[in-house]
Amino acid sequence: MVGLVERWQRMGRFALLACGVAAGVAGLSGCANNSAGGTSASQANAAVFTPSDEPEARRRARIRLELATNYFENGQTTVALDEVKQALVADPTYSDAFNLRGLIYLRLNEFGQAEESFRRALGLRANDPNLLHNLGWLQCQQRKYAEADQSFVTALANPAYTARGKTLMARGLCQVEAGQTAEAEQSLLKAYELDASNPVVGYHLSNLLMRRNELTRAQFYIRRLNNSEFSNAETLWLGIKVEHGLGDTVAMRQLGDQLRRRFPEARETGAYQRGAFNE
């Protein structure tokens, strides 16, 4: 799960599963600027400042957080963490800084510190759906599947939440890991309805359907993905296995030729050449 997700993240072709970085500091609390929409009680508690009334402590913290965000997005994780620490020294009530600190610790696999950071952020902005999304994804990495699902459900229950597709995707991937295939299919189908171009959703939906031997349905999703700019060795190999299961040797050969040409050294290419369709 994570390998494919991270590969597309590095390509910059879809938003991070963890909310709150790509939009910059102005939208750090969510997958997009104020993605929960409106002005909720939790947002009011977070004290939104304009340049004219921004306290000096918050201004210093915001500048540090801007630097931290840039470092984080460029893969300079420890430098980003140091900047976040400086932001929190300047303003220990800055929920966005706790959120980014949680994402940094999540990347570093420091799960306990990541959870403490997300909960500190939620303490300052209670029930924020973006923060709940991040906490849920962390809990999924810890295999706390029931707790993760509850975090996702609570986030999705906010009617003004506009990043629902991302949370449905995360929920579906977590349900796959938990072995809840029927529930995962429903979550991923809903995510696909909201964003049919998301390669992670398309891949995992097709893979799930193939594992359930629903090959015609799996073919629909993987063919669409392999006809897009997001195809890679993993998606082509999945497409080959689906076409093999359906007995379409022409389509299988076409995908195999593309796999060998584009990714000659890939593990999937070796598996194809061995005919290891059931590995």
From TrEMBL:
It comes from the Bacteria. Signal peptide: none annotated. TPR repeats lie at residues 95-128. The keyword Ion transport does not apply. Keywords: TPR repeat. PROSITE patterns: PROKAR_LIPOPROTEIN (PS51257), TPR (PS50005). It holds the Pfam family TPR_16. NCBIfam families: type_IV_pilW. This is Type IV pilus assembly protein PilF. It comes from Acidovorax soli.
